[in-house]
């Protein structure tokens, strides 16, 4: 596994075959967001979009807390430090922080989340920008902004009610309380629970399954899942879905997949 030069002190970006692994690396501050962390995540997601060799990404963290969200101590004291590069980029990409946090311009490939420990406020908000979520048995979630007199600006008031039942989303958002991994599983907020310390290994297993599939088909399915929302009529959604499907069926990968099935061998996809 190779560390990439887009890594920062607070965000390690590595490539493991066709998988991009993004690790939040500020354990001394409970992985609260910093400019260096946001810069690394922003660059990682844009690389995932641009590099055809990358099929999916895993987001995880070092330490015993996945992410505590915004650095409230720095925010209260006015000491939030910014790197020169981050500030320069913000001049041309004003929403760079929202892109980093998966609110805006999400990458066009699957994102797998591996959570150990606490994922609070922004830690649960970024969760909603991922596609498949693995949590340790000790993981704790919560959109806790209201308990601090704040508003969850990373999209939870919009996304959470679309991803789990409305009444559960309302309770999470309005009470600002913690929920356990088991509750998150029952709510449908995460996919599965594994033993403590095993989330990254489980995420890699899921990534391997995704990487074995046709990359054009995977990207098209991701687009459909994200873009064809409940607000669309079923008829309009079907038309839009067909528009994504047609180029996939016309691809060399589709022919290879059917040929491999006939020949009873693993398919070798090229993304063409």
Automatic annotation (TrEMBL):
It comes from the Bacteria. InterPro entries: ClpP/crotonase-like_dom_sf, Enoyl-CoA_hydra/iso, Enoyl-CoA_hydra_C. Pfam families: ECH_1. SUPFAM superfamilies: ClpP/crotonase. The keyword Lyase applies. Keywords: Lipid metabolism, Lyase. Belongs to the enoyl-CoA hydratase/isomerase family. This is Crotonase/enoyl-CoA hydratase family protein. The lineage of its organism: Bacteria, Pseudomonadati, Pseudomonadota, Gammaproteobacteria, Cellvibrionales.
């Amino acid at each position: 596994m190779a560390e990439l030069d887009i890594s920062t002190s607070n965000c390690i970006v590595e490539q493991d075959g066709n998988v991009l692994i993004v690790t939040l690396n500020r354990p001394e501050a409970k992985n609260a967001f910093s400019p260096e962390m946001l810069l690394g995540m922003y660059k990682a997601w844009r690389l995932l979009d641009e590099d055809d060799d990358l099929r999916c990404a895993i987001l995880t963290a070092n330490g015993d807390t996945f992410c505590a969200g915004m650095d409230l101590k720095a925010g209260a004291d006015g000491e939030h430090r910014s790197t020169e590069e981050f500030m320069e980029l913000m001049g041309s990409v004003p929403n760079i922080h929202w892109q980093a946090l998966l609110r805006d311009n999400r990458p066009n490939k699957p994102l797998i989340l591996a959570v150990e420990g606490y994922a609070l406020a922004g830690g649960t908000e970024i969760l909603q920008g991922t596609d498949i979520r693995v949590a340790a048995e000790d993981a704790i979630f919560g959109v806790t902004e209201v308990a601090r007199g704040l508003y969850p600006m990373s999209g939870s008031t919009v996304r959470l009610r679309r991803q789990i039942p409305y009444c559960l989303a309302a309770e999470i958002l309005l009470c600002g309380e913690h929920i356990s991994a088991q509750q998150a599983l029952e709510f449908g907020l995460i996919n599965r629970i594994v033993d403590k310390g095993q989330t990254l290994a489980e995420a890699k297993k899921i990534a391997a399954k995704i990487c074995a599939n046709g990359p054009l088909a995977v990207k098209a399915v991701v687009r459909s899942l994200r873009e064809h929302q409940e607000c669309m009529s079923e008829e309009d959604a079907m038309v839009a879905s067909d528009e994504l499907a047609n180029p996939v069926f016309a691809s060399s990968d589709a022919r290879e997949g059917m040929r491999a099935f006939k020949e009873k061998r693993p398919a070798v996809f090229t993304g063409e």
